[in-house]
Amino acid sequence: MRKLIESIIKNQTSITRKDFADWKSAQQYAQSIYNPKQYLLQRLYKDVMQDALMTSQVEVLRISKTKGADFDIINRDGITDELSTRTIKDSGLYETIAEMVLESLFYGYTVIELTKGRTGGVRATSVPRENIEPTQGLFLPDCTSDSGAIHYRDLREYGKTILEVIPKTDDLGFINKAVPYVLIKKFAFSCWSEFCEIFGMPPRVLKTNTQDSTMLDRAETMMREIGSAAYFIIDTNEELDFGQGVTSNGDVYSNLIAKCDSQISLINLAAVIGQDTQNGNYSKEESSAKLTDAVITADKRLVEQTFNRQVLPALAALGVIKDGLRLQITKSKDIEALWSKTVQALPYYEIDPKWIKDTFGIEVTEKKAGQLSAIDSFFA
User: Fold this and answer.
1) Is it the case that residue 41 has pLDDT exceeding 60?
2) What are phi and psi of 136, to 5 degrees?
3) In 3D, which of 232, 104, 75, 223 has the Cα closest to residue 163?
């Protein structure tokens, strides 16, 4: 069968500014009970993801932390399969597929197509969400038309080279919850920019005799060049003044943007972290970091489950790895707390120098001559 990616008919995408009417219309179209389509909503999501805070939190704080996690491919006995682990790491499949899996949380769904190359390597590609209608399980070559629609769940490749990730049924993803705040931010930035343009520099007012064409022409030239001229000369009958600017500096827009940012942070990270607050404190930041860590732990669990239920069996069927293997993400360690416990245990227990080197990177050779342990010193 021809690959889904190769069947896509590209359409021109509008880059006009989106508003709440566009969002509501896209939602209604995506949730239609007769003929739902997601392409309007997914195009809006792409526009929303241009927001700097969304990019930072989704791609850096959520996706990158899971993509960068260490992992092992283990067999049924819990022993690491070194060859399969190295194969997955060297191919880059983990990073690619983990990103696609986590994107399903934000965009609502992901359809992954695996393609085996001539040299035996496997490539993972995310089928454009505009061309997928997950409610009915349809692939639309032309996202705006039903012509040539394919029920991809009925294909024999489904579950083998076509994988689907839908974290929650009938859910439009986290980005849908952030859309109104991003739209309001764009509106606030636009108004603030216009405010700066109008009131950023006080207007210049020149009183002159407008009935005298010579004086009027000279006045227009002078006002046009006043920004670059070191000085200017006016007639005794002329008067130059600067208009009174407004007293506000745009706080109303700044506060509105800050409020939207805090709401976006709650959606993406379950907390408002340091980059989003001016008056934080250690305890607040610590509790926020713990909430964010809990969210990232859940992300890693979703990636593990998806690999073990769908990805690794598909790779085994393609002959990339052996059958019956599982992916296990290595749990991150609190090095600071572990070092503190190690120091406390040193006076009472012998600790393997190799473990200290592997864990903390400290080269340990042997105990210094004449050094007494804490217990020896106490009874000396």
Assistant:
1) yes
2) -100, -5
3) 104
Give the contacts of 280 (CB within 8 A, at least 6 positions apart). 274
Q: How far apart are CA 174 and CA 106, in angstroms?
A: 4
CA distance 61 to 280: 19
**What angle separates helix 20-30 from helix 174-199, to the nearest 10 degrees?**
170
**Each residue of 292-317: pLDDT tens digit?**
888 888 989 999 999 999 999 999 98
DSSP 149-164: -EEGGGSTTBTTTEEE
Classify each residue of 317-331 as buried b or exposed e, where b means 16 or more C-beta atoms within 10 Å of its C-beta.
eeebbeeebebbbee
Question: Phi-psi region for residue 284, left (φ > 0), alpha (ψ -120 to 50) or beta?
Answer: alpha
* Structure tokens that stand for 209 in this block: 């005799």
> Does residue 239 sit in helix, strand or coil?
strand
The 10s digit of each residue's pLDDT in 113-145 is 998 877 668 899 999 999 999 998 999 988 888
Place of tokens 């506000």: 248
The pLDDT value recorded for residue 289 is 74
Residue 102's pLDDT is what? 93
| Amino acid code (one letter) for 26 | A
Window from 23-37, 177-191, 273-287, 329-343 with minimum mean pLDDT: 273-287
In terms of C-beta density within 10 A (0-12 exposed, 13-18 middle, 19 or more buried), how is residue 114 classed? buried
Alpha-carbon gap, residue 273 to 280, rounded angstroms: 9
